Amino acid sequence: MTILQVNTYDLAGGAEKIAYTLHEQYQQQHHHAFLAVGYKRSQAPNIFSIPHEMYQGRWERTWNRLAQSLSPFIWKIRGVKQMYHLCCQLRELPHSWRITLGHEDFYFPGTRHLLEIPPTKPALVHAHNLHGNYFDLRVLPWLSSQLPVILTLHDAWLLSGHCAHSFDCERWKIGCGQCPDLSIYPAIHRDATTYNWRRKQTIYTKSQLYVSTPSHWLMRKVEQSMLSQAIVSKKVIPNGIDLSLFHPADKITVRQKLGIPLDTDVCLFVAHGIHQNRWKDSQLLQTVIIKVANSRESKKNCLFIALGATEKEDYMEHYGRAKFRFVPFEKETASVTNYYQAADIYVHAARVDTFPTTILEALACGIPVVATAVGGIPEQIEQGNTGFLIPPGNSEAMAAAIQELLYNHKRCHDMGIQAAKMARERFDVKRMIADYLTWYEEILNNSSKTSLCPYGQTDELRR
């Protein structure tokens, strides 16, 4: 089977990790797998950047090349993010008035040539995140008339007038407008959320899409949104991880390898761009760890390791008896796994989250999880068995749960055993691969029996 996946990046966290894992596993099972991305970071074969530049004018090509060269350093070097956005603004100057008005940018001409990327025409297209300034959403009606198009949603951007997550706002159900926060990623300059919402609605009306989500929480949102009208078939397929890489290990050996003291309670949190990550609650984490470290019952030093900091160097901060160690983003999976295996508890404080892979990785490594009960997280944790679910923003409850595990070593150990067991039963990457491949076969068998609706390109796309 020839499979073409589409995503913003090939290497990063969350959606990128899932798409890349699927790509590798498909190749190992001898499928013709290709991954088309907006921004390529790896040197892996069969991964291609969508060729927007060759279909743009000279002005756009120049600024686009400069923006792409800056992209890998956005979270590593101070000031690069501003330079990157400046290049993007200059690139878009010929049609920047739309952006100034708050319109979402869909002008990415290489999208129309997506099916030319693989050497042979794919049997289907499996798209992941379509935001991130690289994909022309107006292509969906035409693309879905050519072959089956699967959308795996990792956030709610396709359902709204601009934001990837709406937090407590539910205006995405009725057409957006009067947006409470235009700065939520992907940010827009003015409140054109009603226009953007209706624009997406028009695109979906002319599309036929197969939609999957990793959590029932996100699927319920899809069913209440304007995307529902485009759905031919839908499926909840939980994310999976490679259990040959993420598994329990001897804590003493791993800590000696990482230089972590043996007589220290270790709490771990993993997220890309921890300080700047709006979906996570870094302030809650800091408050909680200080409470735990300075409690009267604590007999050990408490070390909080934050893996995925944007800084280039490993550094430490001290708050009373609490120590915060910030470790830069690790590309090597083996190194990331070691940090999980060295921890006593995985702590995940989020304001919103779809189905975080980091929680699955922690469970697989045999450590209990204390996390805020938001989004799809309650679908990952068995309360009191593999971890604790805490009301969002409740530092007292989170601190109490962590203390319960740190001071009751037997319960912490037993919950870790249950966590690893549940990961083996529910979150094995082999199960995820099998679920997708089985669904692909069903889709292809059904689509061969019924002709796809012959929608062409919209007038807006031809403009």
From TrEMBL:
Single annotated GO MF: glycosyltransferase activity
Tell me the keywords, alphabetical order. Transferase
Keyword Transferase attached: yes
- Domain Glycosyl transferase family spans what residues? 254-421
Q: Give yes or no: UniProt keyword Transferase.
A: yes
Give the Gene3D superfamilies listed for this entry: Glycogen Phosphorylase B (3.40.50.2000)
Q: Which InterPro entries match?
A: Glyco_trans_1
The protein in question is named Glycosyl transferase-like protein
Q: Which organism is it from?
A: Vecturithrix granuli
